[in-house]
Amino acid sequence: MSDHVTDRATEAFVAHRNLLFTVAYEMLGSAADAEDVLQETWLRWIQVDLEQVRDQRAYLVRITTRQALNRLRTLSRRKESYVGPWLPEPLLTAPDVAQDVELAESVSMAVMLVLETLSPTERAVFVLREVFDVGYEEIAAAVDKSPAAVRQIAHRARGHVDARRPREAVSQSETRAALESFRRALDGGDLQGLLAVLAPEVVLMSDGGGIKQAAVRPILGADKVSRFMIGGLAKQQIPITVGHTVVNGGPALVVHLDGELDGVMAARVEGGRIIGLYYVRNPEKLSHVESETPLTLG
User: Fold this and answer.
1) What is the C-alpha separation between 113 and 85, in angstroms, rounded?
2) CA–centroid distance for 201 within its chain
3) How many Å separate Cα 184 from the centre of its chain?
4) 104 Cβ partners below 8 Å, 6+ apart?
5) CB 243 within 8 A of CB 289
6) Which label site among 98, 168, 171, 218 has the fewest CB atoms less than 10 Å from its CB?
7) What pTM was computed for the model?
8) pLDDT tens digit string along 261-295?
């Protein structure tokens, strides 16, 4: 391949890289695997005869989708032997992600967890159609299905996600306020303060991956979650700091033990109270929370 053609291929890939990463991440819930998919996409892209490509963006999305589908099936097997709950890998995101309501919702922990309940093909079709507004013909080419089959899959996946996604849009400021109340109560060991900000039916999911201590099953109910959190902090003999951050397009808390990053906690808020807490402690999932990851729908 000539240097000129390689330059054109590189230019196109770089122009669409953030989009391709966002597609792969939304399909996989893993930044590390999304990066691997982009590497595989690049290796295939530089073998393509660009003169035969009418729409470079669509072609790159198609390659990325196929590679992500292959990786998703491998990930599904890994998750079967994963210790405790599996949570998406949190990403530190820039302010522009939070300002794009559609993008912020699609990468939120709550919605990413709903996507985990779809089959690999359903997830690919849903992400491409509902998040990135890709046409049925293009999706069909990416997932090796007929356009008619893709329409059926999209309808089924949409109904499945709509039944499980957050019922109401919650402002960033409302989520941040709930997390600040939670942080203050946690910092003061204030059981009543925690009970006041946690919804009675709150669910805590903690992901240590078998590397860091975490609950091996979701913890249900405000009383149990409050006691688990306060009890866990009481056992620590070293200084703990809990501060605010923004991950996956929404407010979150970042926890440091003795100055070292320990984990990130995202939340789902309804009616001013926390209904879902997602605490990622697995160090293998914390490599993207200290520098921003650019995401885009375009």
Assistant:
1) 11
2) 23
3) 26
4) 97, 98, 248, 249, 250
5) no
6) 168
7) 0.93
8) 999 999 999 999 999 999 999 999 999 998 999 99
- Residues 40 and 36: their CA atoms lie apart, in Å, by 6
Distances (CA, A) of 252 to 40, 100, 204, 249, 269: 32, 17, 14, 9, 11
Give the SS3 label for residue 57. Answer: helix
Distance of CA 139 to the CA centre of its chain: 22
Cα 37 to chain center, whole Å?
Answer: 16
SS (H, E, C) 91-151: CECCHHHHHCHHHHHHCCHHHHHHHCCCCHHHHHHHHHHHHCCCCHHHHHHHHCCCHHHHH
Average pLDDT over residues 126-137: 95
Q: Which of 222, 257, 244 is nearest to 289 (CA)?
A: 244
Is residue 199 predicted with pLDDT exceeding 70? yes
Supply 118's token pair: 């779809």
Strands 273-280 and 250-257: unpaired
At position 207, the amino acid (one-letter code) is: D
**Rg of the chain in Å (alpha carbons):** 20
Pairing of strands 240-247, 219-220: unpaired
In b/e form, how buried is each residue of 60-89, taking b as 16+ CB within 10 angstroms?
Answer: bbbbbbbbbbebbeebeeeeeeeebbbbbb
| DSSP-derived secondary structure for 173-197 | HHHHHHHHHHHHHHHTT-HHHHHHH
Please give the backbone phi and psi of residue 264, each rounded to the nearest 5 degrees, phi first.
Answer: -130, 140
Tokens of 107: 């990468």
